[in-house]
């Protein structure tokens, strides 16, 4: 079993580095995306800042939208300022950005260390400028629901990534009951966009696979933001972007000449050493798994990185490996006879690379003697091919650490498929805990219901056991989500019927006990309402999974089907997982309404109570609640009595008549 596990890891490593890079290189995707980027550069000084095409050549053909970073670069050049100001990280909690990226900032307090999600200021300014454009809003409406590829070169790539994130956020928020449309963002030579918190948030939302960053071996721009912000030569990033302008446009923009002159005066070797030093520090910090970033640079990669060289391409989809390989490929110098690659050439070579890479795949290449040794395994050969394709020869100083980094990035754990299989076994072992809570529920169905029995700690021994099983189940599901957040499970795990159904059943059975525990400890008085301040993240995610399943799996969970088919008996579990939290709020409001003298406040309370009465009555009439809800001594039955008594009052009847 152990050998099989090791074999699968080796195959996975080979596939996700060289083979995936070869697949991308041989497909027309990169060439088409670069063609759009070139078109955007030709009109980059225009007011739009983007071009689009495709989507009309047949069903399923994606729309390709390319963004130019020229406007952002001109703004930075005209405004002056150093790297600490232009590239400073800006949090997405603000009024404007917060609404545009709501899912990314929704769970910020849960991020390690409380680091807020942030992106670089220059790219965010360019994106917000786009959002104010009526033409851009028209474009978003036109491509809504379609397969789309967002792309961009240099700063345009960073803006394209923000547009893709916004598009994914909007699709996630507005289409809870529909699968998200296919979205891919392809960037060429793009600077780093966000901090570690952004990378974690993208992993949490399962969006890392939507981003593909193409980086040439000696391009300084994708690696420059590893340096401390106060030492970054801004004119390099700005000049690289403006260098893509047509000659006529460069002459028309007076500021371009100044930036170009500063670039010409820059010592290329000093620039290379600056980047190599700080990228190396970042790679070492990733190796040591340092919790903080002493180098002073907040930026880290996300998504997949396609590391290109004249010898081919290799792809890494692990953020830690991406940092390390960005350093290793840059530090690996070319042969002396080829000479140093000028920064402008390395940043503008992507058109040649995407055209030449498919040709290299057709050539049979010989590996060095160390690779072809008889003792070398297929796994080692795959690693060597990946290193060679990314531009690191066997003789390079960086070859040994890069080889180890690639191996480590895949050997930190088993493949997602094996993890999922192991998790299924653990789910079977934890099922008896769920069965014990079901038995506990059945004991109290006839009188108080298990919610009130747990809240009041009736039968202390049974309560202690049920509480222990509740905690064990919570630990199991929190562990599942932790694996999901760190990409240790398959990308479609949250859409697999087995796991969606298991999570939903767990939620309906156990969340009432969490609500009871919350109110028994009076946390609703110190923290606030359970629904808004006390609900665990796992339940919110399970809600989202179930809603998505309701649209994508009609045979087992179609929400429209549940509204047309009436139950003949009460449900085994109440279908509203927050039902008991709403009952508790209704009881408190009813008690407050009894002594309320202000008619405006009383009317507001009665309106809320009337809405809950309609909601709960509909659930009961449709038998969407468990039998314990209508138990004689349940909190819901007691609230119904209290509510009916309150409605006998004259002033209450007068107000309710309006509703």
From TrEMBL:
Classification via SUPFAM superfamilies: alpha/beta-Hydrolases (SSF53474)
Domain of life assignment: Eukaryota
Coiled coil (UniProt feature): none
Subcellular location: Cytoplasm; Nucleus
Domain EDS1 EP: 435-658
GO terms under cellular component: cytoplasm; nucleus
Keyword Cytoplasm in annotation: yes
Residue ranges of domain Fungal lipase-type in the record: 134-227
Keywords: Cytoplasm, Nucleus, Plant defense
Protein's GO biological process: defense response; lipid metabolic process
Record bears the keyword Thylakoid: no
PANTHER family reported in the protein's UniProt record: LIPASE-LIKE PAD4 (PTHR47413:SF2)
The protein, known as: Fungal lipase-like domain-containing protein
Organism: Oryza rufipogon (Brownbeard rice)
Source lineage: Eukaryota, Viridiplantae, Streptophyta, Embryophyta, Tracheophyta
């Amino acid at each position: 079993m152990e050998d099989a596990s090791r074999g699968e890891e080796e195959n996975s490593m080979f596939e996700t580095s060289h083979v995936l890079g070869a697949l991308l290189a041989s497909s027309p995707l990169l060439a088409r995306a670069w063609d759009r980027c070139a078109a955007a550069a030709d009109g980059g000084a225009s007011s739009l800042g983007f071009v689009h095409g495709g989507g009309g050549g047949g069903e399923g053909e994606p729309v390709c939208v390319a963004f130019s970073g020229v406007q952002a670069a001109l703004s930075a050049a005209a405004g002056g300022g150093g790297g600490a100001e232009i590239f400073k990280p800006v949090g997405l909690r603000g009024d404007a950005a917060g609404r545009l990226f709501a899912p990314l900032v929704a769970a910020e307090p849960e991020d390690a260390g409380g680091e807020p999600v942030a992106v670089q200021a220059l790219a965010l300014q360019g994106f917000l400028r786009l959002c104010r454009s009526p033409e851009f809003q028209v474009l978003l409406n036109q491509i809504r629901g379609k397969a789309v590829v967002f792309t961009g070169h240099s700063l345009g790539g960073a803006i394209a990534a923000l547009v893709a994130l916004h598009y994914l956020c909007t699709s996630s928020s507005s289409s809870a009951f529909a699968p998200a449309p296919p979205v891919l963002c392809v960037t060429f030579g793009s600077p780093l966009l966000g901090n570690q918190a952004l990378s974690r948030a993208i992993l949490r939302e399962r969006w890392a696979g939507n981003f593909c960053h193409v980086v040439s071996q000696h391009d300084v721009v994708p690696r420059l933001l590893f340096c401390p912000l106060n030492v970054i030569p801004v004119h390099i990033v700005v000049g690289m972007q403006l260098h893509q302008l047509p000659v006529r446009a460069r002459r028309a923009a007076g500021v371009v000449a100044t930036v170009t002159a500063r670039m010409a005066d820059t010592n290329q070797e000093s620039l290379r050493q600056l980047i190599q030093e700080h990228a190396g520090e970042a790679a070492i910090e990733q190796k040591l798994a340092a919790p903080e970033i002493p180098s002073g640079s907040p930026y880290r990669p996300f998504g997949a990185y396609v590391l290109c060289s004249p010898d081919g391409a290799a792809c890494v989809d692990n953020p830690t490996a991406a940092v390390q390989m960005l350093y290793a490929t840059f530090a690996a110098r070319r042969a002396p006879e080829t000479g140093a690659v000028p920064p402008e050439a390395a940043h503008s070579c992507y058109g040649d690379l995407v055209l030449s890479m498919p040709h290299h795949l057709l050539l049979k290449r010989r590996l060095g003697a160390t690779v072809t040794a008889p003792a070398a395994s297929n796994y080692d050969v795959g690693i060597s091919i990946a290193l060679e394709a990314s531009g690191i020869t066997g003789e390079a100083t960086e070859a040994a650490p890069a080889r180890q980094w690639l191996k480590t990035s895949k050997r930190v754990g088993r493949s997602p498929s094996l993890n999922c299989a192991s998790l299924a076994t653990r789910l079977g072992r934890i099922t008896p805990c769920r069965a014990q809570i079901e038995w506990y529920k059945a004991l109290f169905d006839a009188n108080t219901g298990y919610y009130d029995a747990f809240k009041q700690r009736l039968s202390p021994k049974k309560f202690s056991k049920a509480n222990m099983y509740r905690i064990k189940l919570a630990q199991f599901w929190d562990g599942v989500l932790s694996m999901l957040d760190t990409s240790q499970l398959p990308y479609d795990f949250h859409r697999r019927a087995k796991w969606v159904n298991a999570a939903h059943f767990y939620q309906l059975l156990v969340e009432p006990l969490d609500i009871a525990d919350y109110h028994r400890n009076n946390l609703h008085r110190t923290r606030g309402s359970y629904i808004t301040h006390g609900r665990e993240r796992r339940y919110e995610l399970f809600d989202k999974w179930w809603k998505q399943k309701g649209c994508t799996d009609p045979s087992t969970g179609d929400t429209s089907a549940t509204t047309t088919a009436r139950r003949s008996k009460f449900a085994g579990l109440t279908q509203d997982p927050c039902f008991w939290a709403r009952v508790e709020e209704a009881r408190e409001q009813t008690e407050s309404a009894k002594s309320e003298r202000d008619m405006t406040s009383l009317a507001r309370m009665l309106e809320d109570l009337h809405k809950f009465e309609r909601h709960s009555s509909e659930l009961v009439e449709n038998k969407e609640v468990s039998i314990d809800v209508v138990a004689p001594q349940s909190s819901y039955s007691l609230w119904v009595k209290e509510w009916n008594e309150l409605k006998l009052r004259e002033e209450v009847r007068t107000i309710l008549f309006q509703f």
